[in-house]
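Query structure, 171 tokens:
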């Protein structure tokens, strides 16, 4: 649940030297048969004063040889709470839900990573990571039909047929 920091990802920028970074790799995912794709997650962060700790989400389509950044926020833009010089642990009200479109990766298999880069500011928290997509299903159109009526039969029944091509029928 949001605000349950016991099971969240925690980047200790409060104690990490500026310029150092951590990466969290997600399992590979295939959007080969999808019509849409997205990543959602919750984030909580506050600056120490005016530092620009950074969070990026990056995607690779070639097993990590190259990466494209699909989400990039830092400093005040990343913040979900006012700056503080105390070690930050968020309350439930200090989280923000983020949605990242992955639509440009529909039809491909990808790997993703979260990359947090310290500017020696305050702590960053990530929770509720979800990767989702929609699979398109073609609507089945059947122009063939057989109708039998009325539904209660006493001595006569009517059978009406409609087919897109000539067919032999046995009744």
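Result returned for the query:
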């Amino acid at each position: 649940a949001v605000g349950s920091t016991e099971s969240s990802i925690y980047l200790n920028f409060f104690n990490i030297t500026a310029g150092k970074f951590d990466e969290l790799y997600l399992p590979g995912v295939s959007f080969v048969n999808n019509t849409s794709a997205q990543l959602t997650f919750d984030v909580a962060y506050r600056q120490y004063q005016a530092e620009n700790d950074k969070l990026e989400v990056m995607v690779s389509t070639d097993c990590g040889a190259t990466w494209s950044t699909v989400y990039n926020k830092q400093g005040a833009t990343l913040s979900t709470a006012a700056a503080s010089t105390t070690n930050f642990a968020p309350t439930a009200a200090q989280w923000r839900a983020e949605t990242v479109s992955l639509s440009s990766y529909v039809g491909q298999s990808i790997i993703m990573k979260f990359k947090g880069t310290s500017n020696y500011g305050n702590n960053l928290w990530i929770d509720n990571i979800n990767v989702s997509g929609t699979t398109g299903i073609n609507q089945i159109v059947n122009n063939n039909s057989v109708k039998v009526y009325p539904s209660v039969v006493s001595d006569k029944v009517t059978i009406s047929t409609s087919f897109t091509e000539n067919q032999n029928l046995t009744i």
